[in-house]
Amino acid sequence: MPCLSLSSHTDNCDDPLVSALPQTSFQSSSELSSSHSPRFAKLNRREGFGGWSPLDSDKYQWLQIDLRDRVEITAIATQGRYSSSDWVISYLLLFSDTGKGWKQYRQEGSIWAFPGNNNADGIVHQKFQHSIRTRFLRFVPLDWNHSGRIGMRVEVYGCVYKSDVADFNGRSSLLYRFNQKSMSTLKDVISLKFKSMQSDGVLVHGEGQRGDYITLELHRGKLVLHINLDDAKLRSSSSSRVSVTLGSLLDDQHWHSVLIERFNKQLNFTVDKHTQHFRTKGDYDSLDIDYELSFGGIPLPGKPGTFLRKNFHGCIENLYYNGVNIINLAKRRKPQIYTVGNVTFSCSDPQMVPVTFLSSTSSYLLLPVDSPADGLSLRFQFRTWNRDGLLLSSQLFHEPEHLLLYLSNGKLKLAHQKSLLEKTEMTTGHGLNDGLWHSVSLSTRGLQVSLTLDNNASSTMEANMQIQSGDSYFFGGCPSTMNNLGCKNPTLAFQGCMRLIFINNQPMNLIQVQQGLLGNHSDLQIDICGIRDRCLPNDCEHGGQCSQSWSTFYCDCSGTGYTGATCHNSIYEPSCETYRHTGSTSGYFSIDSDGSGPLGPTLVYCNMTDDKVWTMMHHNNMELTRVQGSSLERPYSMQFNYSTSREQLQAMVSRAEHCEQEIVYRCKRSRLLNTRDGTPFSWWVSRTSERQTYWSGSLPGVQQCSCGLNENCIDMNYFCNCDADRDEWANDTGLLSYKEHLPVNQMVIGDTSRTGSEAVYRIGPLRCYGDRNFWNAASFNMETSYLHFPTFHAELSADISFYFKTTAKSGVFLENMGIKDFIRIELSSPSAVTFSFDVGNGPIKLTVKSPTPLNDKQWHYVKAERNTKEALLQVDQLPIRFLEALPDGHFRLQLNSQLFVGGTASRQKGFLGCVRSLMLNGLTLDLEERAKMTPGVQPGCPGHCSSYGSFCHNGGKCIEKYNGFSCDCMHSAYRGPLCKKEVSLLFEAGSSLTYNFQEPLSVSSNKSSQSSAIYAEMSKSLENIAFSFLTTHTPAMLLSVTTYYLEYMAVILSKNGSLQIWYKLNREKEPDIFSTSTTNLVNGQLHKVRINRVGRDVYVQIDQNVNTKYSLTSNTEFNAIKSLTLGKVTGSPSLDEEVRVAGAQGFIGCLSSVQFNHIAPLKAALHHHRSTVVTVKGRLVESSCGSTSMADLNTFTTTHSLSDHLEKINEREPLAIQSDSVVIGGIIAVVIFVTVCVIAIMTLFLYQHRKGHRTSTEKDKEHRENLEYSLRNHTDLCDSVSESKKEYFI
User: Fold this and answer.
1) How far, in whole angstroms, is CA 404 from its chain's centroid?
2) Which helix H or strand E contains 510, and what residues bound it?
3) Which of 276, 275, 221 is nearest to 249 (CA)?
4) What strand order describes the sheet that includes 636-639?
5) How far is residue 476 CA from its own chain's centroid?
6) Residues in contact with 861: Cβ distance below 8 Å, sequence separation at least 6, in sequence order
7) Nearest Cα to 51, choosing from 15, 86, 97?
8) What is the pLDDT of residues 1069-1088, one digit of tens each?
9) Strand partners, 1124
10) Looking at the DSSP assignment, which residues form a beta bridge with residue 65?
């Protein structure tokens, strides 16, 4: 059998091997005439009719050459038949050591189709990527000149190959005995080649009395290496043992190469072209083996010929142990080698002919029965990856009686069908689609049918009458005329291999089938088993589990965090910034900074409540920690674990615009840097494992604290407060913001061993904001401009994603070329994006067409992916275009030129527009940095709001930024990065919130023009009101608006729970009252209300199901608006009685996101509660109406944020450690604050008193009531100093 060399081509191994061969070395499937004989198929010869041509030109023809001995082959060459129209366009190459049991030449893991000729006399050379060692070659034409016939002349190049071979019969072994009792090695190299038909057997074994061992064995067609270097007496468990499995289908009777390299604990294990690197466990580095090393089995001590495990049955070639040629020593009968059993030094090859069933629809093998007899006897072996497939179908002697044997869901089923309605079945085995050889034996005796699978016990069933064999059997499938031939198939045709077929104890000669002398067949390969393991190598990425069928493989991505055909794509966003763009709110998220790259996801907290989106990474020690008793000789040390790898941290930090980490550090008689020799007492260790001695906001490399830079340390002789070494507590707290050093990995403190010396520290979470990659963009201003980057290396898997916007009709986004291969993405038309590539099987194109133009100057998203399983193209949210990869053929994308972005090497079809966030296999290209040095390309891209303006919700305004956008929520009732976070307050009984508008000129002539402008914007002939509320109390005043001319509008809840809207636009007339027909709104549920007035028309919408139009009796404008009040209203005699009653009751419940034109009173109360614009009476608690329960309406509970929690920590230890001066300072601050309150009350009283020109009795009364409530509110403010920050008083 042949061997595929792992090494590159042997030097000077290129001699022509065919030209000198005798005529008997040439054979073929057929010949057109004696003048077209295969003996004329030598390169450049013109004898006969100038080459070989078969009788028929079809896919079953072949040309075979016997090279007379095993040789090493490095290249081949082909020609057509001399001066004719006969030549081969493409062909397969098979090789064998015996002329039987052929193996297909593979390259890149696939059956390799060699390109042939395009004329009769040109020579096409093919140099092998890896040399092969064999005796027989067979050329199989795949395609030929269709204007002529198949015609070939060939040459083979290589050299002589010599080797030492040993044949083990399954009861033999070679023992290599050491010169001393025990051999201890730190380095071992074992190399060999083997071939076998058995799936199990020990190839190498050695062990020592201490417990060391090494074993190499075949197990279920795979090689397993077991190794242990530890003392078994010291370890009762198997924790130090290592077993590594490699290879597949190694029982195929073909040569396989093995190399084991060990240095100390490090091992490299190679089988054929696949290598696995691993380390042994335990404490020891040496391998201690006693007496001997065994090859071919594990004999029991003192009992030659007996083995502990199944021994190897097959051939081993060129067996070397640490440079010693074991087989050569055995052949020369050297004393170091002891032979157990019969070992011969030539390889015997079993003569068996396999057959491959290629198609799941049309493959079949028909074999006749020479002399049908009573009963039947069948046996054969099969191997497959498919769960379903027909193995055998036969019409028995008594029609319509049938016998069916087939695979169903990996189990073997036998069905005896006596008629359409009468059938007997039995099932045996499971998981038979494992790629291993399984033997099946089927026989009858009397009425009993026996089915035997492998070496298991037989399964039997009873027939009603004796079964008599028919005159033929169909294996694997049925022909298309199955009904006429009596073949039935309840499942798919079989795809796999069969061999050793016996009918009535007679072997079937499949070579005669190939020659057309026996039976019939379709879509078969005879004398070859074409099974391949599509899960080796495993193309499922990121730990995906591979399974397979005959023609493809599947990846189970469950639990990996990745998705796609090969588990290539992360299911997580790369940053908190991108989560924000998906509409997410604050919470814990997994981020995958490198997308489809090798780094896994990381769990972080995304804080999206601020203008910036903060990414927070916590560690294992977030509490304040007190340190005492440490010195430079025995320093205190704390390691911080961020539950992620260093590489993941680096990726996250590198992607961010800014990172920071707070170090809270307080000290008493504990120095940081103050030493005589300059060696610091304390330091911290950065992400890069470097010692850092700058603190609290100082600069890297500057051994100081921030007070040293700011020149405000408590002792100017030192650069840190703690270095003053005082008995009082000092503080060197601050932020570290040099992100290349973050996060802090370790804290070391070395000066707390003296009397009264101690330190308290806390390392805060790592906090980062921004996403440098998401907004990284370049603008291409000329068609001839482009950016170039290093070659895109993505042989097996490539994914490319980016955003673009343009007004151009077409243009190339990116292109990378190889010698023949290429990859390109382009805007092929104003409404189409095309992804094209070639991996050697011809150009492939995928195009996604949009129903709307893509050159609309809006951002559009493109993602293209290509792997060994499929290719896909996605544009925005349009349907994804998929294309499956060929099951066999080229699949490595081999590129060698630079990657061009925004254009091509030819400077044609360049792209005009912007490209942003270009990511290739998880790596973001820095377009901005490259654009800075490239003519015709500008860094960045303006106009983000044109695409992302809709991300700003609820009236938020999009603000353009260089690297993105932000939302201005000033005129929105909402807040947050995207103006989506509701602003809610809980109102208790008697609470109210009043927003005071500026007085118009007609009322107060001394107001500024600016005030008038503000007022003029508010007094328009329309109102736009929106709010949400939740309550269980009625009647209630939700909202009221009053003017200086005693006009008003009010929204109240009546006693029956319905909503009423009151408009009084003329105090001389009756008000307009609109009552909605909505059911009870006082049900403890959140309701949304929108009121819009334009002239006379009032539009009211409640929740999603009530939208009503009302008409006012007048279209009078609201003039001189005085105030807007939420909740309780008193002292307003202009209100009608029912409104006054509701106003007196006020509102008890939750109000959310209140908007009156451009005014958001709740936000004003929260953010400007000390302003005179906002007046608050009673207690208001910030809440979330969406999560408020009915119980909360009666009991207000404040939920503190993380920052509140940290502040409370700061207020505990070490506040207890602070000096009394802090307490005294606090008392003084309270006294000053109370004094300010008294002055404010008196000032307001005097101001109100000077407005004595209001002579109306009603105005005097209103003035006294307002003054009374103002005084009460100021008093409440002074009394509320100790209340929670979430409660507001004025």
Assistant:
1) 45
2) helix 510-514
3) 221
4) 636-639, 746-749, 683-685, 691-692
5) 40
6) 801, 802, 803, 874, 875, 876
7) 86
8) 888 898 887 678 888 888 99
9) 995, 1041
10) 26, 137
